[in-house]
Specification:
about 60 residues; 4 helices; mainly alpha; about 70% helix
Length: about 60
């Protein structure tokens, strides 16, 4: 059924390549982000669900 529709689309073979490229680029960027993010920030964020104290902004902490 879909074969008939896909045969009528010009240059349909490029779309799987584009999809794979977007998928690959996204995950490469995600891996780079995870490897370069500050470990202190990860530690702080991981403790947020367990922390009962109110959330203070950095401006409040400087005072």
């Amino acid at each position: 059924m879909f074969k008939h529709y896909f045969e009528q689309i010009e240059q349909v073979e490029i779309w799987p390549i584009i999809s794979l490229s977007i998928f690959f680029i996204f995950f490469v960027c995600l891996i780079i982000y995870v490897l370069t993010v500050d470990k202190k920030y990860i530690s702080e964020v991981s403790q947020l669900p367990m922390d009962d104290s109110p959330v203070n902004s950095k401006k409040d902490q400087e005072r």
